[in-house]
Amino acid sequence: MSGINLEHISQHFGEQIALDDISLTVNEGEFFSLLGPSGCGKSTLLNIIGGFLEPTKGNVYIGDQDVTTFPPYQRKTGMVFQSYALFPHLTVFDNVAYGLKVQKKKKAEIEKKVKESLSLVQLETYAKRMPHQLSGGQQQRVAIARALATQPAVLLLDEPLSNLDAKLRKNMQTELRNIQRNVGITTILVTHDQEEALSLSDRIGILGEGQIQQIGTPLEVYRQPKNRFVAEFIGQVNLFEAEYDEIRSTLTVPHLKQSNGQHVQLQVAAHEAEGEQKKHLLMLRPERIEVSLAQEGDRPNHVTGVLADVSYIGHSLRLVVELEIGEIIVHASDSAFPQLPTIGETVHINWQPEDLVFLDSKVHI
Prior knowledge:
Blueprint: E1 4-13, E2 16-26, E3 31-35, H1 42-50, E4 57-62, E5 65-66, E6 77-80, H2 92-102, H3 107-120, H4 136-149, E7 154-158, H5 166-183, E8 186-191, H6 194-200, E9 203-208, E10 211-216, H7 218-223, H8 228-233, E11 238-245, E12 250-257, E13 263-266, E14 279-284, E15 290-292, E16 303-312, E17 316-322, E18 327-333, E19 346-350, E20 357-358
Parallel strand pairs: 3-8, 3-9, 6-7, 7-8
Antiparallel strand pairs: 1-2, 1-4, 4-5, 9-10, 11-12, 11-14, 12-13, 14-20, 15-19, 16-17, 16-19, 17-18
């Protein structure tokens, strides 16, 4: 197995800059996801790693070898495409064996490696079937088996689960992670699905505007996003543009005003509000907010508002709490309300100071 090192990768399509000076290291045996919105350059970067596209600038290393000018078949990479790209006229066995036959392996070796690969994806008994006789999930596993049969150093996955229904997609996420762990292969997944990246990855690279916005573990990018782009892209979020009041030692949010005429004031755990900077951008995840129909004593960051929207999604409720000016999104546990609250009810919300996360250093209010 090998790690991957990208050095100053740029990709231009005419005057359009798809990727702008990207440097990235993926460790040996790591499951790494490239996450970002559609059109941000994720698949372009994956195709550069796989050798299907040569970068305008920069170098690609697999292990210690510079493979920037190598064609795909010389890179020791296995690729699984969004469409699976199975050969419809070949059996499952022959689909998986295809790359081995191209490599001119001996018949006995081909049979051995195909059997091993199908065993990894639990399709040993499907070797004689045709692709049209398989479900979407089974076809996806055949595509993975084919990619692994040639024993590549790196596995590249270009949104391989996007064509599956929600339930099957969840099951295949678990199977994909188990396969990757069993083989121990360095894996890069391209996806726009935040939950998929969070659940599968050792680390995630957030790609946006042609650049890597942040690299970190799922916990780091979700709880401690580095900037507004990452905070807004990963999950739902409340963003507070606040001004520091030196006299009161508080952060005031001009765009949020309660019915009593007061602007929302934030109590924070960090000391980042102190110093020369007077304007700040803070993040608060909706699930970190406590909500009740009655005020329960003196609590930090207490805000009163009116329910403007209630959405029940089984395990939780999504509430939109409307203030005199502005609104706050809350995710409450299903068990928090024996009966669903109704639109128009007054609710009390609060959150702990340490749940407020400072983002960009410069904010224009």
